[in-house]
Amino acid sequence: MSMMEWWDGFWATYNTVIFSVGVNAMLALSIYVTLSCGLLSLANAAFMGIGAYAASLITMQAGLPFPVALAAGGILPALVALVIGIPTLRLSGVYLAMATLGFGEVVRVVVLNMEITGGPMGLNGVPPVTEWWHIVLLLGVTVYFLARVRRSKIGRAFEAIKEDEVAARLMGVNVAGYKLLAFVIGAAIAGVAGALNAHYTFTIGPNNYGFENAVDILTMAVFGGTSNLIGPMIGSTILSLLPEVLRHFKDFRLAANGLILILVVLYLPKGIWDPRRIRAFMQRRNSNNSASKKVN
Amino acid sequence: MLEQQLINALSLGSVYALFALGFTLVFGVLGVINLSHGAIFMLGSYAALLLVEKLALPLWLAMLAAMVATGLIGLIVDFLVLKPLRKRNAPHLIPMIATIGVAIMLTNLAQGLFGAENKRFPVGTIPEDSVTIGNMHVTAVQVGIVVIAFVLMIVLLAVMRRTQLGRALRAIAESPKAAYLLGINVEGLFYLTSFAAAALGGAAGVLVGLSFNAISPFMGQPMLHKGIAVIILGGMGDIRGAMIGGLFLGFAEVLTVAYISSDFRDAVAFGLLFLILLVKPSGMFGKVLERKA
Prior knowledge:
The structure holds two protein chains of two kinds. Chain A has helices at 3-36, 44-62, 66-88, 93-113, 132-151, 153-163, 165-170, 175-201, 211-224, 230-245, 253-267, 275-295. Chain A is mostly helical. In chain A, helix 2 packs antiparallel against helix 3. The longest helix of chain A has 34 residues, at 3-36. Chain A is globular and about 65 Å long. A two-stranded antiparallel ribbon of chain B has the order 1-2. The N and C termini of chain B lie far apart (48 Å). Classes of the chains: A mainly alpha, B mainly alpha.
């Protein structure tokens, strides 16, 4: 079997898995942004859904080109985030988590009861126009953009708010404004991811964007680690591939996701990609090595 | 017509209240949003079902045993997951995320063990008696639900208000550290709270299993969402608030279905939640508690 044939077979079997690795990386980054500002939002699945529906309706009903649909898939959730963010982000901690969870459910019920969204049946026949390079390109743009933000004044403000909101405010940081910005950026990224996802899965429905999905997104980010950009991407990659690896466990494989979440929270509070811990580990190993050399 | 709706609302509302009671108790005492409460509620249903099916226990005994079983599960979750986080003094959101993990695990384990389809109690388990008063049709199950829920609520309220134990729990709710310095066995009472809360959740699970006679691994999630709405409506950590919030939600839902549209049934809880968070985040009775930021 030639390399080319092997690749064709592999791609035919696994292209949806590979696509979802990329899209999940974007989703994990979308919640990373809000977490980096100290906000736990469970609304990102809902924003993903808004983006998916907006983009699908544009390609299906209006027949506009895919790039327009993608743009709308990012802009509409961002606008919604702007509107609901102003009152909601006054809340903190668990209250914010609960409010965003409530928002997600309201979105689900609204989508369920609208005619244009296809109600409980969802939308069928979304044109499969997402190519692998769309995902790579947009993921790349997202990473570049977030890396720039991270090193900018905005990124430092996010970090200050995350560490100590009161202190940040006293230092003259516009806490409410930056929180809103993080929320809106997260919504836009989640929306684009939703638009990409809708255009390779063919069918979307209101239950694809519920609480479980919000939790999945959060799990990927927390698992990988949210202290930097690489963590969420590693977390999303591993958790997207895990169901394939755990195929033999059939009904129990989703239980593994729960177990992983618990174990990570208990034993790796900073996620698996924690540069500080890795550096410390390498240093310890190096010093052990040099110590053993001396003995020899 | 209206009277009948009010009866239905009362029985639905008392289940919500009973479920929310355990949920709010854990928040009040441990300061944790325990998102595995819905999964434990679901396990309560299955426990009662198994005991009735396999051991042919009478219903009341099965319910008691199911409460003990779910209580123990709550205790184990506390010991294995929440205690290490308490020790580390992890910030508020961390235990919440951990309990999401517990919920995912328990739900999928239940699905693997019992299958994804709806299960029913064997024919004859659920008393089918009912009385008709004027236009109202009241089933024995509805009466049972309201009575059991109210008895459990009143017992819990009495314990919290009148006993030394309740005083200790309220002291912990104010400040675990101060309570510890005053010689209260804080860790022991955390366990007791987790046990009691899970047992109340299990009881609610049995009652819901009986009233709809459909038990599935996924029944916990929607209930959890309702529970969140209830404790936010009533004020987080407030027992009276959970009772009144639960009844309020029951009435709001049933009346929405009856007079507006069943499509909006699930939006009611979250519409209310959203509104109350925007207007008065502390809920009807609560004060905003943010012990650990």
